[in-house]
Design goal:
Layout lengths: L2 H6 L14 E8 L2 H11 L3 H4 L1 H6 L10 H15 L6 E12 L8 E14 L4 E11 L5 E12 L8
Antiparallel strand pairs: 1-3, 2-5, 3-4, 4-5
Length: 162
Amino acid sequence: MRDDEARMRGAGLYAEDFPVGTRSSMGSYPVTEEEVMAFARQWDPQFIHTDPERSVTHGRYGGLIASGIHTVAILQRLQVLARTDHWHVIAGRGIDRLRFVRPVRPGDVLTGDAVVTELTLEPEQGRGLVVFASRVCNQDGKDVLTMEISAYLEMRPAALPH
């Protein structure tokens, strides 16, 4: 374990710090045309994400839109950067109820928020499962993505059975 990791072990937020109802806001993220096309060329090369002209003439959305997977990646970035304290994350468990509510377009400014909907402590495993209902909104306050994210976090060492 590195020295900085060892120092962080006693500080930060543990599973017990996320009771049901805990809300968190995330920052904002401006979506650019260049990023939409670059992401899609690598991960979702459909013309509605990569070809501005064809997306107008042959697409259903009247122009270029971001890949849904790109929008999920933006939410992940917002969540990680919004943490002002170290979280003792073990690993993500899953994503449920993922919904792409409306298209994300170049020029949109996305913001996110989350609320804890479930907390299951597992002292025998030294962890807790935290479920967050997360959403991403555009600059008009309209949802573009909703989903549940669950993750295992360590429990405080003092809370564990000895």
